[in-house]
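Reminder to self: tokens first, then the designed residues, so the page reads top to bottom the way the pipeline ran.
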């Protein structure tokens, strides 16, 4: 299947799901700086996938996919803190981690094909 728009990219779709999950999970969190950072990191994943795709250059696409992978790592790292601070339950933590690992794996596979 040829990808004609960024919405066709599975890692973008998964990143959107992750963002909605993170935004919902932290919606009422009162640690505003923490909430803002994890939400911005989560939305950065899909935004960088979209931006890289729209650049229409494999080198730039690869560059933005690496940035998206970095944002996955940031969300994962912050999730450990969120769990320790009891901002989230273990089940929610596991879901975030699994999302991030899957997205990073998909991005790595895509990067290899470039």
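Designed residues (114 positions):
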């Amino acid at each position: 299947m040829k990808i004609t728009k960024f919405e066709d990219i599975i890692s973008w779709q998964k990143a959107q799901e992750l963002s909605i999950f993170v935004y919902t999970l932290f919606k009422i969190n009162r640690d505003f700086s923490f909430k803002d950072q994890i939400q911005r990191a989560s939305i950065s994943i899909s935004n960088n996938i979209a931006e890289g795709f729209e650049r229409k250059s494999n080198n730039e696409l690869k560059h933005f996919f690496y940035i998206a992978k970095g944002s996955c790592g940031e969300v994962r790292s912050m999730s450990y803190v969120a769990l320790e601070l009891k901002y989230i339950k273990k089940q929610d933590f596991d879901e975030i981690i699994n999302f991030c690992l899957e997205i990073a794996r998909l991005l790595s596979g895509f990067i290899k094909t470039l």
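Helices lie at 10-25, 32-54, 58-84, 90-113.
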